Amino acid sequence: PGTIFVVATPIGNLGDLSPRAREVLAGVSLIAAEDTRHTGQLLQSFGVATPLTSMHEHNESRKSAALLDRVARGESIAIVSDAGTPLISDPGFDLIAAARQRNIPVIAVPGPCAAIAAISVAGLPTDRFAFEGFLASKSAARRTQLESLVAETRTLVFYEAPHRLTEVLRDMAAVLGGDRRATVSRELTKRFETTYSGSLAELAALAERDENMSRGEIVIVVTGAPEQSHDAVALDAQQLLRALLDELS
Ligand code: SAM
Questions:
Q1: Is 85 exposed, middle or buried (0-12, 13-18, 19+ CB in 10 A)?
Q2: Less crowded by CB within 10 Å, the N or C end of the chain?
Q3: C-alpha of residue 9 to centroid of ligand 1, in Å
Q4: Whole-model pTM above 0.90?
Q5: Does ligand 1 have an atom closer than 6 angstroms to the CB of 90?
Q6: Where would I find the H helices in 34-183?
Q7: Is 84 in the pocket of ligand 1 (CB under 6 A)?
Q8: How far does Cα 195 stand from its chain's mean position?
Q9: What digits encode the pLDDT tens for the residues 162-216?
Q10: With a 6 A CB cut-off, is 88 part of the ligand 1 pocket?
Q11: CB of 219 within 8 A of CB of 160?
């Protein structure tokens, strides 16, 4: 068979397309793109003339079978999304899962990813983190999701739509606690790149005052819950035991 290349593309700054990404995109026989017009412009600015086909969330499972057949017959293809790394809150999962099942080679051509870029500049713990993608757009569902994360000790990473920033930060402050340290990174790699850093309560207040903060594309990074020390856990267990014994006596 041929190979499927999963190729990361810039998240705003064309200079971030790697030489290897360009080489691979120029060398394959077909590129499956989320939006062929958008990717067409990118390819044009790099002088790449490889044919494009569209693959997005609505046609992906249908499209995958046909693409896999071509690769099985010996063609190599690439998949790209509109920005950043495919499959990270972007299409590609059906294709790659099916490729793995059919033992078709899949090769990563890594590069930009907004989540990783935001964590790398946040100054919050990076040893363990949980990528949560997009939260629900309705506040009630969002609060339920956030409640399930209250005890999570890993750093949390969210993608968010700009027009929801203020209400999301307010919900986060209410559910996770206003004191938690967090960052809001907007327009990473672009002209107006800014990272705001503070407690969730401060960031929520700032978003309300400063309308620039919710312009453009946004990643929110939030410190995890404090680790409960072994001593605290042991103390809890002792208290519980005492309460149970009291009940019995
Ligand atoms: N696959 C992409 C990646 O690797 O980052 C993410 C695609 S997802 C559909 C788009 C979301 O990523 C945006 O809503 C925003 O939360 C985040 N994002 C993408 N580009 C960004 C940028 N330049 N600055 C900040 N956030 C960005």
A1: buried
A2: C
A3: 11
A4: yes
A5: yes
A6: 36-45, 60-72, 93-101, 114-122, 139-147, 165-176
A7: yes
A8: 17
A9: 999 999 999 999 999 999 999 999 999 999 999 999 999 999 999 999 999 999 9
A10: yes
A11: yes
